[in-house]
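Hi P.,

Sorry for the delay on this. The queue was packed all week, but I finally got your sequence through. Input first:
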Amino acid sequence: MQGFDTVRFNSITELGEHVQMLEQNPDLPRAGNASCDTYNPENYGNMDMSTAITTALNGGNWQEGADAMPKLEVPHETLSGGAIPEQAMFSDVQGFAPIVPAYLAGLPDNMLSFDEVEVEKRLKIGVQVGRRFDSEQRHALNKGAAIMSVLSQLALEGYSLEIWAIWRNQDGMSKASIETCIKTSDTPFSSESIAFSLAHVAFQRRLCWRVAESLTDGGEKMTLEGYGNGKDSPMDDFDIGFGYLSNKGKYSTPDKAVATIKELALEQLEGLEK
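Then the structure:
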């Protein structure tokens, strides 16, 4: 993201490897140290740094979170299809115009014809993992479950989805963005890794914070002054972006979470189609 001190990881495992390297090399530059706090475990979902790294190295396999996420469904009629019709031209035995060289060569397919073909629509999805300090685990689990349900429906309708977990905070001119790919366009959904990256507070406060603490530009200054806030951080570098969890009321129940995420997705899909 332009203007942000940015680090990108191609997978949760790659993020875990990077944080493990940082922890194993204490002499590397470091600003803040809140990621390694041991006095307030509840602020980190009762997951210490070692466990957070191990979970990431295992691909974000948080089975407990996957089991706790509500199982939600989105009515099919609420979302538009992802297959975009385009006209493709080809040779045939009949059509609207002759192909003179083919006719002279005696080939039977000597006419131009066309038909509609469906072209796969690819979407790059960004999800802000940051959340307000007084939100609870259930709010994040509801949000994560709603996102997985809505995006699963889009996938069924023909969209090819690439999903990124984004920790993107700013404090004045200090800006940092830690970006982790949690699903490529050719891999299936994993409820375990989605639960860990989108709903477990240790993903942002252990792993993403630790990366930000190692930066030498925006992240460094920010982690010395309170780690910033993601509420107003832009997400317009994604086709669909789901922002910071600032209004916990919208995610207080599974149904409210689905309604919120569905509305956000539809609004942005309509913008893409204009």
